[in-house]
């Protein structure tokens, strides 16, 4: 016994020295992992035939100290045979199919998982013991998934593959898989102990990285049962390091095989695991990258937490993350998720999510994304901002004050593809529907600075040529507004092009309903008077001026504007608004001439309801400035073009608001148009009845009746004198 103890002690000392050198070499900076040292144990003297033992193959006898063996080598791997098959270390394992699968193993592979592996892999509170998925003699299959859900699946065998040699020729040879990797795969799919599965994740990750993505390792990890087992760990584990390793492995798999994406989305259709991961402070950016690779649809993102979770990713995910070989910016992922949340549901749910984005302060982060980054992503951010404006119009004021105008102009310039999205211009146009004319003009002044030395009006003119047809009316309106700010009395090329584009968009014979609706918005934009939610106030303003009683306006879709301001600011606002409309009317009369009036008359009759109403409102406010036109021939011409339309609008089949607007416009035309006496005197009785009925709600009808009566008397007097 003393001799045996002495020999055994020497072996242990030798092993200790070998492991010391092993770790010393391993810890060198930049060094690759060295092969694990082999520590041969002494054999027990036998009365029977002696068996030759080598450092490559040995038999563990009953006299060997098993505890010490486990301490050095870890739990033993019980093989069907009592010895390795040959001196080359060939392992023979019995699989479910009954066929032997040969796995080449080196000295490191033939040993069990070492406790010291935790130095390389990270924190580990336990080593794998005998319960660590031993491959028992006589086992006919591996139960690959008996994890936390207590499922049991038929294991898929790890198959050998053909690989290409360096010179391009093919060799049919077995590929090395370490025994601990096989046990890790088995454990993660069969063990009910979370700590064992967490340790298995470390082993799988280590094998993946060290193999530089060996095809057989990739095939083994890509099995659906293994992927689902990893997902179980993501759901159950609370160790950030384990979760990060699992996320990284899955990201690699998804990037290489789209089938993995389908497996994950099918296993977790409501993305509960990802909601859990996105809540974790240390992992939410990495989880966002993995989820982005999966490309989930809106119907899977049903948790009420999604908007807040995505906004956190958008706020902090500005740096590119690397998950093994996968690189991605989390903000790109956040933009994708946000697009799904705001555009992937039914209209009500989309609007609800967009309002939540606004209420949680998401516009600040979205504005930053518009200002910097890749063009495609910036356009997507602009589209999301547009959705927020559509859902919560009151955010226009905040955006107009804080958004970088030059960034929008830059996107308009760079978005020069034939199928341009137009998101940047859509946002720019929406930010002009502000509650105060002073704010509208300030925003336009901010645009005048241009971008990169380019003139803003030239940028918009170029964009007008390639913009989608439904966007051209608004582009033309903004271009015209900028031109009016320059010099309202000086004709320009940009002005002519803008007015021409507006008239084309008013042609109801060639423009579809969408274009007509956008033309209506363009006309209202020129008037420049809106509520804080972006609804036009021009109709309400002129109805009020016409004496239309408030009780008759109850239930109006325009609602009531609540504005709190002192009298000084109110006077300034009123003056700015009056000055702007006076300039705009003069430009439209002088540059649009009779062609614009005819277009407005036609669209008020034949246009869709929104365009017909907007055309009538535009005629009303333009008519109030007709007296400012220097050309004395223009008012009678305007009277002859517009009067038939206005008289028709007095009919009972029109709503009372339209009839009041028509009477207001007609009164303005009558007052300024000389030579209209004969026309008024010849009005039929129906028109007079319509006015008499309308006089109950507006003073304009009473005044028109008085003027018509006077004109009729004058006409009769003139006629009698002519006979004399």
Description:
Residues 1-43 form the Putative E3 ubiquitin-protein ligase LIN N-terminal domain. It holds the Pfam family ARM_LIN_C. InterPro entries: ARM-like (IPR011989), ARM-type_fold (IPR016024), ARM_LIN (IPR055566), ARM_LIN_2nd (IPR056514), LIN_N (IPR056512). Residues 177-339 form the Putative E3 ubiquitin-protein ligase LIN ARM repeats domain. Residues 340-709 form the Putative E3 ubiquitin-protein ligase LIN ARM-like domain. The chain is mostly helical and 724 residues long. Among the domains are: 1-42, no CATH class; 70-156 and 177-267, no CATH class; 303-417, no CATH class. It is 59% helix and 3% strand. It contains 33 helices and 6 strands. The strands form 3 sheets. Strands 1-2 form a two-stranded antiparallel ribbon. A two-stranded antiparallel sheet has the order 3-4. Strands 5-6 form a two-stranded antiparallel ribbon. Strand 3 and strand 4 (170-171) form a beta hairpin. Helix 17 (375-391) packs parallel to helix 20 (423-430). The longest helix has 40 residues, at 567-606. The protein is elongated, with a radius of gyration of 41 Å.
């Amino acid at each position: 016994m003393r001799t045996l103890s002495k020999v055994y002690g020497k072996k242990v000392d030798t092993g200790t020295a070998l492991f010391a050198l092993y770790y010393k070499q391993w810890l060198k900076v930049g060094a690759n992992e060295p092969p694990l040292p082999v520590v041969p144990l002494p054999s027990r003297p036998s009365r029977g035939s002696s068996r030759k033992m080598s450092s490559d193959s040995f038999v563990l006898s009953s006299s060997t100290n098993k505890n010490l063996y486990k301490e050095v080598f870890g739990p033993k791997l019980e093989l069907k045979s009592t010895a390795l098959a040959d001196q080359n270390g060939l392992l023979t394992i019995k699989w479910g199919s009954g066929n032997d699968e040969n796995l080449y193993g080196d000295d490191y592979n033939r040993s069990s998982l070492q406790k010291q592996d935790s130095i390389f892999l990270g924190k580990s509170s336990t080593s794998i013991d005998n319960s660590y998925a031993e491959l028992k003699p006589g086992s006919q299959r591996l139960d690959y998934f008996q994890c936390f859900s207590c499922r049991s699946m038929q294991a898929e065998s790890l198959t050998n593959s053909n690989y290409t040699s360096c010179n391009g020729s093919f060799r049919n040879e077995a590929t090395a898989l370490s025994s601990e990797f096989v046990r890790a795969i088995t454990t993660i799919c069969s063990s009910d102990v979370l700590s064992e599965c967490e340790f298995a994740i470390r082993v799988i990750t280590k094998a993946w990285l060290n193999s530089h993505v060996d095809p057989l390792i990739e095939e083994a990890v890509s099995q659906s049962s293994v992927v689902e087992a990893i997902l179980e760990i993501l759901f159950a584990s609370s160790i950030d390091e384990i979760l990060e390793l699992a996320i990284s492995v899955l990201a690699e798999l998804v990037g290489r095989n789209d089938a993995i994406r389908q497996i994950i989305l099918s296993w977790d259709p409501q993305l509960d695991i990802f909601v859990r991961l996105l809540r974790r402070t240390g992992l939410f950016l990495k989880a966002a990258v993995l989820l982005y690779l999966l490309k989930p649809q809106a119907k899977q993102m049903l948790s009420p937490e999604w908007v807040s979770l995505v906004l956190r990713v958008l706020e902090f995910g500005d740096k590119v993350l690397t998950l093994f070989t996968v690189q991605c910016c989390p903000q790109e992922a956040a933009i994708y998720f946000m697009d799904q949340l705001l555009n992937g549901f039914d209209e009500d749910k989309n609007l609800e999510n967009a309002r939540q984005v606004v209420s949680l302060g998401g516009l600040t982060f979205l504005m930053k994304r518009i200002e910097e980054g890749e063009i495609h992503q910036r356009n997507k951010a602009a589209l999301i901002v547009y959705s927020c404006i559509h859902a919560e119009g009151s955010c226009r004021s905040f955006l107009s004050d804080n958004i970088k105008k030059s960034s929008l102009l830059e996107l308009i310039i760079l978005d020069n593809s034939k199928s341009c999205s137009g998101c940047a211009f859509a946002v720019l146009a929406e930010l002009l529907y502000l509650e105060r004319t002073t704010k509208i003009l300030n925003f336009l002044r901010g645009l005048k600075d241009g971008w990169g030395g380019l003139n803003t009006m030239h940028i918009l003119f170029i964009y007008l040529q390639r913009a989608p047809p439904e966007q051209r009316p608004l582009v033309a309106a903004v271009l015209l507004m900028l031109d009016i700010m320059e010099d309202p009395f000086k004709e320009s090329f940009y002005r002519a092009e803008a007015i021409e584009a507006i008239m084309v968009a008013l042609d109801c014979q060639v423009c579809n309903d969408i274009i007509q609706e956008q033309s209506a918005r363009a006309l209202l934009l020129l008037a420049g008077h809106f509520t804080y939610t972006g609804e036009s106030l021009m109709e309400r303003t002129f109805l009020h001026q016409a004496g239309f009683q408030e009780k008759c306006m109850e239930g109006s879709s325009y609602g009531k504007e609540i504005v709190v301001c002192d009298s000084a600011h109110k006077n300034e606002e009123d003056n700015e608004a009056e000055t702007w409309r006076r300039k705009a009317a003069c430009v439209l009369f002088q540059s649009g001439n009779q062609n614009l009036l005819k277009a407005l008359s036609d669209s008020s009759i034949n246009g869709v309801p929104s365009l017909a109403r907007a055309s009538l409102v535009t005629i009303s406010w333009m008519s109030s400035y007709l007296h400012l036109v220097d050309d004395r021939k223009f008012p009678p011409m305007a009277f002859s073009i517009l009067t038939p339309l206005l008289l028709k609008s007095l009919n009972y089949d029109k709503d009372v608001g339209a009839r009041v607007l028509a009477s207001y416009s007609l009164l303005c035309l009558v007052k300024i148009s000389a030579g209209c006496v004969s026309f008024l005197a010849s009005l039929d009785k129906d028109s007079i009845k319509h006015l008499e009925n309308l006089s109950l709600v507006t003073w304009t009808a009473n005044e028109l009746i008085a003027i018509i009566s006077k004109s009729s008397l004058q006409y009769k007097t003139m006629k009698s004198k002519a006979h004399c």
